[in-house]
Design goal:
772 residues, alpha/beta, six-stranded mixed barrel, globular, disordered C terminus
């Protein structure tokens, strides 16, 4: 039996690790890290190492299905017939009710080609504004903030900055659990002398490694960020020359910052004043420093403002667009960055363009060969609004691709009500039994990442080609192909007759944007088969990596000469060519604790599981490491409530209820609790944390405030003690806090399991590091 090797990319988080698949008899038999890939250099976390286990014998949707009527079991349907039925029903609703009656909800886990085609179909041909993505739940605030501060979405730097920086400022991100390979890269630099500041309401595994841990009161990050800038100004740690030459708006900041002295910030945030002063001093004195953040800041009604405030810190100190420095948001999904570039949320158009720009609309209309004036200027009201419009009947059909909103959207009862109210629900997924598929009228079988070709773009703008390693099971096919075939049968065959993903990608390359520097023209499929490429990548450009954006010499962001006739080193894609300071005042979250709901719930992820477990939940090794749901409660709160470790707890908000086993831990602050959102209906009843979470949204980015809601905690009346969702004591992911000096027996066992797993999988284990 011969074994072949195929290069690809990990299907999980936005780090975008390169992998090598060993294939035998149409099965992936082994995965190892690609030592030549610039994102990971051979390292892999437990999820990436075991990704092959979810491909086969894992409840795959091998064939299309249709429900004869709501509430009945799905019946197998031949794929061509299912595509025809999908197209016929969508066309019927379109003709009877108009384009606003159709919607699509897509994913940052789709390939670039699939994301491009669904946006082309929705906005260019169906002409509906109702296309939304699960990226609205995670990265919309960061993307919107980047656009306002710097002129375009995406980090200005790259992972290489981690190897050269002198200080990491990590806020609202648990890199050890959610971006493990970047965490290890960061720790390599820390071991070589860089300092690490971590800001988080919970003492995470990342916080355990910090030189300075600032355990902030939830929802007060903006006060801290403003307070740090206040001190940087007072301490003389700003860069007046940079501010003058490359920015606008600083003159309005100094008076604004007077409202954020350290004593007041300490009172708001709960962080000792001395620690606030120390953090500001370290930042101000660091030759190079970078900030890393993700959901802890984005999933807020002030998510856009958080990104503006972080950019303010870098602009004020001049630490941006140079090696070792800059604001760096950490993307959650493997191709959420690509989806943002394809414009699959709100007014977005391919190539970092927007429907609100007449020039951008005209460009895309020419690219798509549709009449000028076809593209509408009205845009989606966001994910929450879209599902609300289904409840009211304005939207009558929803096509959901590669995502599971019944489990992931906050206040999920609205999603369930929306799908029940809709006339037509289509789901396109690789797995048959998901929380959302249970509400579908038509189910289309999508191929998994190893079963087709397509490009994925990671957090640092790095393009990696997923190369097909195995054939998909049954009649499953890649998402791009399903989308193209449905579009063709809806009557748009002339514009959707693609023979390969490479043909779709070649069309995407034409959407390059000289204003923002977005350029894939030099990153051809042929080149990507040989090596990953980081955009901007102009034709005939020899470099595979372009780690710093907005450099004027790149020729991508516009050649602007100032009045002094000196061409600036940096040109930001704003109207003025300069970055912008924004004065963003601290304001409280949408929902504060009261006598009925006195606790604050923070939800999030665990290291060895992924999203709603459609993949990782099928992997026995990962389920041993993170075996089930829980709610972390501070021991003082547990004692006052009469709750003991591993007892079932009712977690209730104004919206819903979850019942979870308690884990007593001082990782959380008194008055706070933490619960992972991975486990939902497929794994048991009343496990869904998003039954409880708040769907209030940031008015600028429309991202919901998943990270903060008010809840009550009560010992459950019934204590079933079932094995399904009660973690074993020695496997609880947060049973006891760890420190850098002390490793508890439970954690030692877990780390031993990880090392053993690495050995079994043949992966190169990183240097010994306790991840908490």
């Amino acid at each position: 039996m011969t074994t072949g090797k195929v290069k690809s990319v990990c299907p999980y988080c936005g780090v975008g690790c390169g992998i090598i698949l060993e294939v035998s008899d149409n099965r992936v038999v082994k995965i190892t890290g690609d030592k030549e890939h610039p994102a990971n250099f051979g390292r892999l976390c437990t999820k990436g190492s075991t990704a092959a286990a979810a491909i086969t014998e894992s409840g795959r949707m091998e064939y299309a299905c249709i429900r004869p009527s709501r509430g009945t079991k799905p019946v197998k349907m031949e794929i061509s017939a299912a595509i025809s039925e999908t197209a016929k029903r969508l066309r019927s609703i379109l003709e009877e009710h108009g384009p606003d009656a159709l919607s699509v909800y897509v994913s940052g886990q789709m390939s670039l080609e699939a994301q491009y085609l669904i946006n082309k179909l929705a906005k260019g041909f169906i002409r509906t504004p109702n296309i939304e993505s699960n990226s609205r739940l995670c990265m919309a605030g960061a993307g919107n903030g980047y656009k306002l501060s710097l002129g375009a979405d995406g980090p200005p730097g790259s992972y290489q900055d981690m190897d050269q920086t002198d200080l990491f400022f990590v806020i609202g991100a648990n890199m050890a659990d959610c971006h493990p390979i970047l965490f290890l890269r960061m720790m390599d630099r820390v071991k070589n002398g860089a300092k690490l500041i971590v800001v988080d309401p919970r003492r995470t595994a990342t916080a355990e490694k910090a030189d300075l841990f600032m355990q902030i009161r939830p929802g007060t990050d903006l006060a801290l960020l403003n307070g740090l800038l206040h001190l940087l100004v007072k301490n003389g740690h700003t860069d007046p020359a940079f501010i003058s030459r490359f920015t606008l708006g600083f003159e309005s900041m100094e008076e604004f910052l007077e409202d954020y002295p350290p004593d007041k910030v300490s009172e708001i945030t709960g962080i000792p004043e001395a620690d606030i002063r120390k953090a500001a001093e370290w930042i101000g004195e660091a030759p190079e420093w970078m900030s890393c953040w993700t959901m802890g800041l984005n999933q807020s009604i002030h998510g856009t403002w958080h990104t503006n405030a972080i950019c303010n810190l870098h602009l004020a100190t001049g630490t941006i667009c140079r090696p070792g420095s800059g604001p760096f948001s950490l993307t959650g999904q493997p191709n959420a960055m690509g989806g943002r570039e394809m414009g699959y949320m709100g007014p977005g158009l391919p190539g970092q363009r927007s429907l609100v720009s007449e020039a951008d609309r005209s460009f895309i209309e020419k690219l798509w060969e549709i009449p000028q004036g076809t593209l509408r200027t009205d845009v989606s009201g966001g994910t929450i609004s879209m599902f609300e419009s289904m409840i009211t009947g304005k939207i009558k059909a929803c096509w959901i691709i590669c995502t599971n909103p019944v489990a992931t959207v906050p206040n999920r009862k609205k999603v369930i009500a929306a799908l029940e109210a809709a006339e037509l629900v289509i789901t396109q997924d690789s797995f048959l039994d998901t929380e959302t598929n249970r509400y579908a009228d038509i189910l289309l079988p999508g191929a998994l990442w190893a079963e087709g070709e397509g490009v994925m773009i990671n957090s640092e703008r790095n393009l990696t080609l997923m190369q097909q390693a195995v054939k998909p099971p049954g009649e499953a096919m890649p998402d791009w192909e399903l989308i193209a075939r449905v579009a063709a049968e809806m009557g748009y065959a002339e514009s959707f007759s693609y023979s390969s993903s490479a043909e779709v990608y070649a069309e995407i390359q034409q959407a390059w944007n000289p204003k923002t520097g977005y350029d894939l023209r030099g990153a051809t499929y042929e080149r990507l088969r040989e090596t990953p490429v980081q955009w901007p990548s102009a034709p005939d450009q020899p470099n595979d990596r372009n780690p710093i954006r907005y450099l004027n010499r790149q020729g991508g962001t516009g050649q602007i000469d100032h009045s002094d006739h000196i061409s600036p080193d940096l040109v930001f894609p704003t109207e003025s060519g300069k970055a912008v300071f924004w004065a963003r005042p601290y304001m409280p979250p949408a929902e504060l604790p009261d006598s009925d709901y006195p606790f604050v719930l923070n939800s999030g992820r665990l290291q060895h599981q992924w999203h709603t477990l459609t993949k990782t939940g099928k992997v026995q090794k990962l389920n041993k490491l993170n075996p089930g749901p829980f709610v972390e409660i501070h021991p003082e709160d547990a004692e006052s409530l009469g709750i003991k470790d591993r007892e079932e707890v009712e977690l209730r908000s104004r919206r819903g209820l979850a019942i979870l086993p308690a884990v007593l831990s001082d990782r959380v602050r008194p008055g706070n609790c933490f619960a992972p959102f991975h486990w939902n209906d497929v794994f048991g009843v009343q496990l869904a944390v998003n039954d409880v979470t708040n769907d209030a949204v940031d008015p600028m980015s429309l991202q919901p405030e998943l990270k903060f809601c008010s809840v009550s905690l009560v010992k459950a009346a019934v204590q079933p003690g079932g094995e399904l969702h009660t973690p074993a004591k020695d496997q609880s992911p947060a049973s006891k806090p760890a420190s850098t000096e002390t490793v508890h027996p439970e954690e030692a066992v877990t780390m031993k399991q990880i090392d053993t797993l690495a050995g079994l999988l043949g992966i190169e284990a990183p240097a010994a590091l306790i991840l908490g």
